[in-house]
Amino acid sequence: MRHWLSMMDYDPAELAGLVALARRIKRDAAVGATMSAGHPTAALRGKILGMVFFNPSLRTRASFEAAMLRFGGHAICLNVGGDTWNLEHRDGVVMNGDKAEHVREAAPVLSRYCDALAVRTFAGLKDAAEDAADALIRAFARHATVPLINMESAMEHPCQGLADWMTIDERFGSTRGRRLTLTWAPQAKAVPMAVPHSAALAAAAAGMEVTIAHPPGYELNQAILDKARSWCAAAGANLSVTHDQASACAAADVVYVKSWGSTAFYGKPAEQTESFRRHADWMVDVRHLRRPQAILMHCLPVRRNVVISDAGLDDPRCVVVDQAENRLWTQAAVLSRLLSES
User: Fold this and answer.
1) Does residue 197 have a pLDDT over 90?
2) Domain positions in the chain
3) For an engineered disulfide with 296, which of 83, 145, 302, 318 has Cβ 3.0 to 4.6 Å away?
4) Contact yes or no for 176/203 (Cβ under 8 A)
5) 331: CB partners within 8 A, 6+ apart
6) Domain 160-323's class?
7) CB distance 213 to 242 below 8 Å
8) pLDDT of residue 276
């Protein structure tokens, strides 16, 4: 049994295969050719996906539910603390607080009801080492007896990364050798690193030239960067990091915008807010799309005129809605693969 927890659990060829499968499902769905018994999406028919949300969602919940319903399955959505008890994941804890149930029981119980599980749990943004351990989703994986899907964890958002890859592939016909700049942008409050981590991994696995631009002090996780750099090297490409946003965007085919917080300000919200204010000029605008064919990407939701200007988001080269749609098709591919193999 295999899970979908991290892009690093797969090799670039496997990830490329999932993108190809997603594109096939999208093409076939457009002409009504996904209903045959031999189609990959047949693996979803009559199956139940149990989704456990520790944090809010719009695209993730809707796209997973749509994938299951479109291809003959069903999805159950559980919001922790609202639809369920608050859940504990740490072992050996005296549970005399607000958490009435442990993942040790919750995960296997849900596994008896569902054919696959999916969990969303954001980083705590208080302890970098604790976030890097991704302990909550990995506790679910240890105790689940069906495939588990990462709907965004403390460290990665592999579903988003796969949809990003598919979107670039559709736009350019091929990703290999294309130039992607992942640029930091300011925010109204601290947000996790999961999306930029997965964006870097996806671009590297796709054989792109990757540049990451951010102010000093906003470094991404070193283990993620090391893996992305090794994948770039294997494809004959490079990964570089710079503090010069303008130069990084000048030659980019893809300008991928994402905010994230600094580990130096974990537990210091006032200092983080002040840092965002000092770097307000990192907001992305159409001036960052220097090449005529360049596209602008963001995972959504996005704060207009804080992260990206109105002009940038409303420019025809902005593909954020395409990215969001492709969540449906790439997640259908992941579900098809996991359910057919389990």
Assistant:
1) yes
2) 7-156+325-341, 160-323
3) 318
4) no
5) 63, 64, 67, 149, 159, 163
6) alpha beta
7) yes
8) 98
Segment 86-96, tens digit of pLDDT: 999 999 999 99
- With residue 69 as reference, give the H or E element that holds it: helix 59-70
Residues 6 or more apart from 179 whose CB is under 8 A from it? 208, 209, 211, 251, 252, 253, 254
Distance of CA 208 to the CA centre of its chain: 18
Closest Cα to residue 60, out of 137, 159, 165, 197? 159
Residue percentage of the chain with pLDDT more than 90: 98
pLDDT digits (tens, 9 = 90+) for 221-248: 999 999 999 999 999 999 999 999 999 9
pLDDT above 90: residue 342: no
For 117, the enclosing helix (H) or strand (E) is strand 116-120
7-156+325-341 matches 160-323 in fold: yes
Task: State how far the Cα of 268 lies from the Cα of 283, in Å rounded to an integer.
Answer: 22
| Close Cβ partners of 308 (under 8 Å, ≥ 6 residues apart) | 185, 257, 283, 284, 285, 296, 298, 302
Classify the C-alpha dihedral 87-121-342-26 as positive or negative: positive
Prediction pTM value: 0.97
**Gap between the Cα atoms of 225 and 231, Å rounded:** 10
Q: Kindly give, in sequence order, each residue whose CB lies less than 8 Å from that of residue 48, ignoring residues fewer than 6 positions away.
A: 68, 73, 74, 75, 76, 113, 114, 115, 116
